[in-house]
Each structure stands twice: as C-alpha cells, then as structure tokens.
Amino acid sequence: WSGRLQIRAALDGQVRNAGVSRYQGLSNQHLNLRDSGCPDRGLLHLLVETSQSRLQVAQSARLTLSRRGEPLHAEPTAMAEPGCCAALYEVDVAEGVALCVEKVLALFTSRDTAISECALESRKAATEAPDFATLADSHGRIWSHLWQRFDLQLGHPGREPDNRNERILHLHLFHVLQTASPNTMDLDVGIPARGLHGEAYRGHIFWDELFVFPMLNLRVPEITASLLRYRYRRLGEARRAARAAGFRGAMYPWQSASNGREESQRLHLNPQSGRWIEDHSRLQRHVSSAIAYNVWQYYEVTRDLEFLSFYGAEMILEIARFWADAATYNEHRRRYDILGVMGPDEYHDAYPEADAAGLNNNAYTNVLAAWVLCRALALPSLLPVERYRELRQSLSLEPEELDRWDTISRTMFLPFHDQGILSQFEGYERLSEFDWEGYRARYGDIQRLDRLLEAEGDSPNRYKASKQADVLMLFYLFSAEELEELFARLGYAFPPETIPRNIEYYLQRTSHGSTLSRVVHAWVVSRSDRDRSWELFTRSLDSDVTDIQGGTTKEGIHMGAMGGTLDLVQRCYTGVVTRGDTLWFNPALPAGLSRLSLNLRYRGHSLGVWVTPDTLRLSAAPGGAPAIRLGVAGQVHEVAGGETREFRLHRRRRATPP
Ligand code: IFM
After folding, report:
1. Strand 628-632 vs strand 582-585: parallel, antiparallel, or unpaired?
2. What's the pLDDT tens digit per position in 561-581?
3. Percent of the chain, pLDDT > 90?
4. What pLDDT is recorded for position 83?
5. Separation of CA 553 and ligand 1 centre (Å)
C-alpha cells in the first residue's frame, strides 16, 4: 500500500488502576496532571503528581522517523486531549519501503536520587539518549550480567531436553529481578506481594519477602541489605503501632505501603457470596518475626557486622521487646502466652462462636517470638562493645528487661495434642474434622474453602482445615537441629521423629489456598518423600503460568511463590545451610531431577555448584577473598578462589541437613 500515513504518539496522564475487577467500585484515579508539552523541541512531555502523596512523575518522549536509515523530517501537530499529550505525524509511505518509527522515553520521579527536578532530568535524558539499537544493546548486556549471577539449570531424567520447569524458573527469576535488582538498590522500595506486575493488594507489602530474600542473599546480598533498610526506615512507624496497641517495642504492620503504617483492609469481598466480610488479617503479628528472621539470615550469609550494628540489631531488639511485652504470664501453667493473634493460616481468625477475633498461642507465632528473643540476647556477644552500649542507652534497655526476655525465651507456652502434634493454636484439637472428600466431590476446586464455606453460611473457623502452612512453617524456616535446640530451651520434648507425623497431619488438612503453601510443603517433604516434593514443586511452578487460582495472575504475579520455587532449587534440593561460618551442602535431588547447576555468592566468592544424584562439584572462581569453609557429609573443607572440589554422594542420605 502506498499513501499518507498518520502516526499518533502520546503520553497518557490519565492512567487508572483498573486491573482488578473486585476493586472497580473503589477510587482508582491517583494522578493529577501538572504539565504537558506537545511537542516541544522534538519532545513530548508529561508531568503528573500522585493525588495523595504528591510524588511527581515526569516523562519525556522523543519520536524519530527514518527510511532506509535516513532520518525523515515531519513536523508534528499537537493534539489536544484531556490529561494527555499527543502529537500527530503525517508521512507519505510507499509500498515495499519500510518506515521506521522510534519512540525513546525517559522517566524520572521526584524520589530519584542525584537529580535536580524530575521534569528537567527527563527532558535531558530523552534528548541525550542514544538510538534504540544502542539502548537495546546496553539493556541486553545488563540482563546478561544479571543472568550470569542468577542463572540455574536443571536436568530431567530421561526427558531431556524437556526444559519446561527450567523455563518457568527463568520466568520467575525474570519477574523477581524486575522487582528487586541492582537497579532498585538505591531506591526506598520493598518487595510487594504481587511484584510490580499487577494491582492486587494495591502494591502492599506483607511478609512474602521471607520467601524471596534467601534466594537474593546467596546471589547479590546487597539487594537484600537495601530491602532490609526499607524496613529499617519504617521502624519508627512500627514503634508507633506497638505503642498504639499498648505495647513497647516495634510491631510491624501486616500490610504496608509508603510510610509503613498498617494498611490492611477492615472488610474484604467474598466474590462467591457477594458479601463484605470482616477482615482481621492485621492480627498476623508474626510478620515482625519474619523481618527479624530475614535480618539474621542476611547476617548468617554475609557476616556483615556493620549492617547488623547499624540497622539489623535495632530492629531485632525492638521486635524482641514487642514480643516480651505482648506475652502475658499464665499463673496456672507458669508459662507465657501470646493471646489474640492470627498465624499464617488465614482461614482461622477466631474461635467458633467467639465474639472477638484472634486466637491464643499460635504455635508458629510463639516459637518465632522465643527465637527472636534468643537472637536479641545473642547480640551483645556479636556487636562491637561500644555499638551495643549505644543501642542499650538509646533504647533504654535495662538488665531487668533482658532478664525477662531470657525467662520468656525459656517459658513460652506451646500447645500440643494427639501425643506430639504441635497444635496450630490452643484449642485446635476441639475443632471438627473437615469433609475434604465431600467438598472436593461437590466443588472440584476447593483451594478457596473460606469463600465456599462463607457462601454456605459456615466458617473455616469451625474446622481443622488450613489455607496454607502454619505449624509447618517451622520446619521450613528451621533445621531439625535448630528446632530441637529451641524446644529443649523451652522445656518441651520434640524429638526429630515427630516431625514427619506433624507434616503428614497438617498436609492432609491443607487446601493450599495461598500459592505460598505448596512451596513450604514441597520443602518440608523434600527429604522424606521425594516424589511428593516434586509434585508439589511442579504445581507451585504452575502458580502463575497456568494461573492455578483461576484468575488471580492477571491481577499480578505471586512474588513469594516465584522466589520460593527458585529457592527450593537453590537451597532445599542442594541442602544448602549457612551456619557456623560454614556453607553446608547435603544434596537430595527430587524424583524429577537428574542434575542441577547454579552459581552462589558466599563471603566474597563466586561458587559454581553442580549436583547429580551421585556427585557434588563445587568450584570457587579465582578471586582475592579469603578461603571459605564448605561442609559436606559432616566434613568441613577450606576452599580458596580457583579451587574445585568434587564429592561422591551416597544415595541413602541423612534425613536432615547437617
Ligand atoms: O502474605 C500472603 C499470605 O500469606 C496469604 N495471602 C496472600 C498474602 C499476600 O501474598
């Protein structure tokens, strides 16, 4: 075709958040137009401001036209459109002769660092930017650098080159890195539950980083440090929340956004019944412990004492103080209780027939609280004396308070039933068994049992039915040895043999209504039932690519499941544990894997890891960092840069990592 072609180029300042149909009735326009220029010295400009927080976002776009590599001059006409700046180009085109239209855009916000004013910076950048080919080239180079650091490769027995799982993991990696990467290190950002890819939960931040940080820790730990500083900056707000609830210390919010205050909804819609339901999820106080756990994990991997001194320790101390204040002494059992909370399982928020929300002595919450207190008590032996003194003085920490922490860390109450089953919360054993078969037969997909039951006028609070791992989170976060130590300190016998019984018990009573659930279950059965682990892992891989929750992926990807599946390959199936200045390996490939390889970063070393069912090969790239300690089958080996070690693996493996 030959003729006159019109090209309309625009910058749209009227973008609405309309991606989640459930939110259609809520306010969805958050931008006010401040300035637009159409076109000015070859550029389109748009400056908008967010309506409440008044952040400015500036965009400038440069449009160039060319034919056969020669620039084509066309004078654009400005188009007046509300909230938008647009330009119309008219060009004569001839059949068979390609017209190349290139739009290069620069975006700055008023929160960017090292800028003067964001509109000015965006104009400058769009004017000076090289052409598309050069930009694409540098973009590709940066991705290839990221890929070298983060890549992992899988082999499948007898099915090579079927690499579907590997491709999905690569997709997960891509999404994780879109959200957190060296590009975000200087920004004040955290890990939103749905990444930056959809509008569900309105970008809020929950505890999901717990599933993403471990993978980042062993690849580019600087990213985790910057994400933890995001939490540190919101410590003041967490202190305020604790104070408002009548406690000392820091109580981090279940859902938060820009300034770190609690943003959890008070009502949520059950699309199944069309009813608005009271939402008590803010009672998931365990989120604070997850932050302390993340600080500790980062420290274990990096030994970054400066970070611990200046940021991490204060968070741990304040969270410990909160738990010690929230715990109440129970005269009758002579132990401490934590009352009126919710665990990670969101199906249970109250006792059946109770007027008030909240459950008592959620086992996961209580164990984590005791663990945080232990970590806080260990800080004096780690921090430089003067830094600990500064912290003690600025937080007014008195010896009596520390004594109380010690006591609580030894006498926190844990509920049990059925000889050795750790109860999800006190009174769990009195709930009714749920008719899993009947409901599956009636509804097919019962992942969102809470919605089905509410629509029937019933409630999951009445049943031994969980949405996601709760007690089992303990076996996900801690090794059997760590748990044994913790339980012994608390004065409870919890021999490792009881772990498989607990796993089986709760696995049978879980609907996996959260995409986080299968990640945790795949992990906890990885040593005892390799087929099941593989099945749960591959189902987790499907979370977003096949949208297993039937419509949630279009509202945003599930960041925790994506990070968690990557971490299953990285740490669980390799048996990687960072403890006692040693990086331990105890590989146990699941049924569906014949080989895996990945690169880890540990204490200044880049470490190539290759695993087959019989062999583990570890290769430290040349570099100047001091030798590291690598542990395999109970033996510790000093390895320096440039060295490779190979180990024969015995097919019958120990039940737990060393
Ligand atoms: O944080 C999770 C929670 O555990 C289950 N519901 C969704 C939240 C956000 O991903």
Report:
1. parallel
2. 999 999 999 999 999 999 889
3. 91
4. 87
5. 14
560 lines ligand 1 (CB under 6 A): yes
Q: Is 344 in the pocket of ligand 1 (CB under 6 A)?
A: yes
For residue 194, how far is its CA from the centre of ligand 1 (angstroms)?
10
Whether 207 is in the pocket of ligand 1, judged by its Cβ within 6 Å, is yes
Q: Which residue owns the Cα nearest ligand 1 atom 4?
A: 344
Residue 653 has pLDDT above 50, yes or no: no
The DSSP line for 4-16 is EEEEEEEEES---
How many CB atoms are located within 10 Å of the residue 108 CB? 23
Q: What is the pLDDT of residues 449-502, one digit of tens each?
A: 999 999 999 999 999 999 999 999 999 999 999 999 999 999 999 998 899 999
Residues 6+ apart with CB under 8 A from 648: 614, 615
Concatenated DSSP letters of 430-464: GSBPP-HHHHHHHHS--TTHHHHHHHTT--GGGBS
In testing the pocket of ligand 1, which one of 175, 197, 202, 208 has its CB within 8 Å of the most ligand atoms?
Answer: 208
Which positions ≥6 away from 170 have C-beta within 8 Å? 151
Ligand 1 center–CA 99 separation, angstroms: 48
253-299: pLDDT as tens digits: 999 999 999 999 999 999 899 999 999 999 999 999 999 999 999 99
Q: Is 102 annotated in the active site?
A: no
Nearest partner of 237 among 227, 220, 222, 251, judged by Cα: 251
CA atoms within 13 A on the CB side of 76: 24
Residue to probe by mutation, ligand 1, list 514, 519, 540, 552, most atoms within 8 Å of CB: 514
Ligand 1 atom showing the smallest separation from residue 467 Cα: 5
d(CA 175, CA 153): 17
Cβ of residue 206 lying under 6 Å from some atom of ligand 1? yes
